[in-house]
Design brief:
By secondary structure, this protein is mostly helical. 75% of the residues lie in helices and 0% in strands. Helix 1 runs antiparallel to helix 2. The chain starts with a helix and ends with a helix.
Length: 81
């Protein structure tokens, strides 16, 4: 069980780091305003659109990855045993 926890935690920290980095680059307007969760740029360029897509994919990767390793796999193993 510790192995699944470690894998889920690695997904959480690695994915969170990617998400925070992209959000800091693209959605932090100022240090006094909303940071990390502000609206994305109105007319992003090609690379910014790709980065925003990567941020969304990373969000769902973290959610499903943590769910799979912390809940799904242990429940499946308990039901199988």
């Amino acid at each position: 069980m510790a192995d699944e926890f470690a894998k889920g935690f690695a997904i959480l920290t690695g994915g969170g780091m990617v998400w925070m980095t992209i959000s800091a680059w693209l959605t932090t307007e100022s240090f006094e305003g909303t940071q990390l969760i502000a609206q994305p740029p109105e007319d992003p360029g090609t690379y910014a659109q790709f980065a925003l897509l990567l941020r969304d994919v990373t969000t769902w990767f973290v959610i499903f990855g943590v769910f799979a390793f912390w809940i799904g796999i242990p429940v499946f193993r308990e039901l199988r045993a």
